[in-house]
């Protein structure tokens, strides 16, 4: 199995939107197409803000798009420089726990390094023990006594 990342072109945009909808459903989040579409188009047209990747798997001579990942760039005084933030990471249900994520994480970290990031930050649902254990095997550490807060403007 060969896993690769590629930026979506116009032909793959609807696939990206459909996967975003599936990710929102999986996380029990409301999905509104317009703001999601605007966000994807912004990232695709302004690469200095981040990157959108489709996750492709070549298996048994067939290539299939099975997920996507959004990496955005920010700055952190605490981390001492630019950071990459994994904003969304989705793998289709039937491809989970097959080693795809274990191949994606190093590819994303390499991309972050190419953009001079000194760290990668991500968010995991506190109740998702499997995801926490997955990221910990790549040396991601939970921040004790922290919660993420947000306000929609």
TrEMBL record:
Q: Which Pfam families match?
A: Acetyltransf_1
Q: Which domain of life is it from?
A: Bacteria
Task: Report the residue ranges that make up the N-acetyltransferase domain in this protein.
Answer: 3-153
The record's section on Gene3D superfamilies has: 3.40.630.30
What name is this protein filed under?
A: GNAT family N-acetyltransferase
The source organism is Salinivibrio costicola
């Amino acid at each position: 199995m060969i896993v690769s990342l590629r930026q979506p072109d116009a032909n793959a945009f609807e696939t990206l939107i459909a996967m975003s909808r599936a990710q929102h459903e999986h996380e029990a989040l409301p999905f509104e197409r317009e703001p999601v579409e605007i966000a994807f188009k912004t990232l695709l047209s302004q690469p200095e803000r981040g990157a959108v990747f489709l996750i492709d798997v070549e298996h048994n001579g067939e290539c299939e798009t099975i997920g996507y990942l959004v990496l955005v760039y920010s700055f952190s005084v605490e981390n001492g420089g630019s950071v990459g933030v994994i904003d969304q990471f989705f793998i289709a249900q039937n491809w989970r726990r097959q080693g795809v994520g274990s191949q994606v994480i190093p590819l994303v970290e390499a991309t972050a390094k190419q953009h001079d990031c000194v760290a990668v930050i991500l968010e995991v649902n506190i109740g998702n023990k499997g995801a926490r254990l997955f990221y910990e095997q790549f040396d991601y550490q939970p921040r004790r006594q922290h919660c993420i807060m947000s306000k929609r403007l």
